[in-house]
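Why do we care about 3D structure at all? Because function follows from shape, and shape follows, mostly, from sequence. That is the central idea of this module. The next example makes it concrete: a single protein chain, its amino acid sequence, and then its structure expressed as tokens.
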Amino acid sequence: MTEADISLDNGPGINEREFISVLLKDYGDEVVCVAPYPQDPKNYYNVRIAYVFSHRGYNPVRYFIFLIASFAKIVSLHLRHRFNGVVFRLGEIPIIPILTSALLRVPVILKTLAGYTLFERQDRKWRHRLLSALVLSFYRRSVRCAAAADTVSCAYIEWLSFKFGLAREKMRLIPNGANTEHFSPRKCQDLRALTHGSFDTIVGYVGALDSLRHIDMLLRAAGEIRKKRNAAFLIVGGGAQEEELKAFAKKEGVLENVVFTGPVPYASVPEYISTFDIAVDLSLVPMRLDKNTVYASYSQKIPQYLSCAVPVIAWDIPDNQFLLANNLGGLVKLGHPESLISEIERILDMAQAQREELKVRAIEYAREHLSVGALTAQRIDFWRSVAKSNTKRE
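And the structure:
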């Protein structure tokens, strides 16, 4: 069950849609999916999904009705199918997993368990702080009643254990992935000529423009790189910091080398990525564990970049070590912005044959390890093992 509206082309909705589509296609005889009725059914509607009353963007009154309708749907489906387990992507008020575990006596499994930015992020607005205070007890009980959970980051395993006491042996690391059929190299000469025809090299980023993405560091690097190369920096996406970043680019004297596209349709994102020579993703979430800090970088975009045959530069932390281990790009040392410039220069200086080999490795790795299909298979195996172990206990 997910609370995300999977008809929407942004946020968790699109990620859940990709996952559910593969889940129903490849494992439809084993699973039943429950989701809110789509706000945009013309964009996506699947008759095999058990839809419930839509909360329409968490409208307070509608959300209360949605919770009642969702639990009623789970009960009715359980009476019909006798579930071996129920999997939840936790939403705004995670009360249904608690009720499912307590009243139906069915193992609860949590998918893509996260929560740090909801409970710990310091730049949250007052209403987000109020919401997190209100739902913390529900979240804690949902986590503690879970038979198992998967999460997207090495740091999350540490934080979830520290914050909620979730046993590490109950957690499985399953990274974010990409629809490797949708995200594939595209012929985009028209797009490149239209927006960047005067540039020889394009360094790009796709995603939200907020403080966790460290776009300012990329803009600082642009100032050094443009001294040696005729390079453009393509920033695809929108967000709270867009105007601030434009002003910063102007201040750094690189505005003529930087293109801010604003939000683009999901269907068009692979075309933009395919114009990149290098993709940079500096997403970073510092997670506090008492006096220690661990760092997460569970970017959804990195698998998409690789799937489009683009090498990736990201932070040198455990989540991204696979990039170095498999020669798929480069890593930037924390606190060393000059290493970003160095890594960009290193990849751009590669011989053409090396660059082509890197592209091939990127696509092959994405398809084998980071495709939605491959990661869904991991989850199904995980869920089966959890259901089997709980059956043995009974």
